[in-house]
Design a protein that fits this description.
Layout (H helix, E strand, L loop, with lengths): L1 E7 L7 H9 L4 E6 L8 H9 L5 E4 L9 H13 L3 E4 L9 H34 L12 H15 L4 H8 L3 H10 L6 H6 L1
Helix pairs in contact: 5-6, 5-7
Length: 197
C-alpha cells in the first residue's frame, strides 16, 4: 500500500499541493502534520509509522517534509528498511524500493556520518586548544541562586522529617536532584536513601 505523508510548518501554509501530488501518485492513505520540521513530536508521522506494514511504501513530497535533520532521516530510513517498508520522495532522487534509490540514500547517510565526525574532531581540537591555554570547559561548579534557595528549603524540610517524595514534589525536582542539593548543603543521608539516589 502507498502511504502519503505531508507536512507544513504553520497553519498559514497549505497542504493541498503536497496532497494533490500524493493522490496523483496513487497513495491510498494520508497522514499529515502542521508542525515545524524541528519538532520531535509529530502525531501524523507517528500514526503513519505505527500503521505501516511490510511491503508498504511511504511517499513524500520532499525529504525535508519527513526528517528533522539528515541524521534523523537516516535513522528513520534505517528503521523502515528493517521493517521492509519503502520510502519514495516525489521531488528527490530517493526511492528505497530500487537499487539506485538505496545507493543515493546510502550516500546521504555516509555524508551525514562524515559531517558528525568532522564536528566531533573540531570540538575535540577546540577543547584541546582551550586546555593548552589553561581554560577548562564545562559548567562552573556549584548551584545557581534558585537551586541554592531550593537546597536550603530541602534541608529544612528534610531535617524536620518530611518524606523525601513529598519534598521533591513540593520543590518540583527529582529525588536525584534533591539528594544532590542535600549533599551540597552537607546533610548526612541515611544508607537506604543513598542507595536509591
Amino acid at each position: 500500500m502507498l502511504l502519503g505523508y505531508a507536512r507544513v510548518s504553520t497553519n498559514e501554509q497549505n497542504l493541498d499541493l503536497q496532497l494533490d501530488a500524493l493522490r496523483l501518485h496513487g497513495c491510498e492513505r494520508f497522514f499529515t502534520d502542521t508542525v515545524s520540521g524541528a519538532k520531535a513530536v509529530r502525531p501524523g508521522l507517528n500514526e503513519m509509522l505505527s500503521n505501516a506494514r511490510p511491503d508498504d511504501v511511504i511517499v513524500i513530497w520532499k525529504l525535508d517534509r519527513l526528517g528533522r535533520s539528515l541524521k534523523h532521516l537516516v535513522e528513520l530510513v534505517a528503521e523502515l528498511n528493517e521493517r521492509n517498508i519503502g520510502l519514495r520522495s516525489l521531488n528527490d532522487p530517493i526511492d528505497t524500493t530500487t537499487a539506485q534509490g538505496r545507493l543515493v540514500f546510502n550516500i546521504f547517510a555516509s555524508l551525514a556520518e562524515f559531517e558528525r565526525e568532522i564536528i566531533r574532531e573540531r570540538t575535540n581540537a577546540g577543547l584541546a586548544a582551550a586546555r593548552a591555554r589553561g581554560r577548562m570547559g564545562g559548567r562552573k561548579p556549584g548551584l545557581s541562586e534558585d537551586a541554592q534557595r531550593k537546597a536550603r528549603i530541602a534541608q529544612s524540610y528534610y531535617q524536620e522529617g518530611m518524606p523525601v517524595d513529598q519534598i521533591a514534589r513540593d520543590l518540583d525536582i527529582s529525588k536525584a536532584t534533591l539528594y544532590k542539593y542535600l549533599r551540597f548543603r552537607g546533610v548526612e543521608i541515611g544508607k537506604y536513601e543513598k542507595q536509591i539516589s
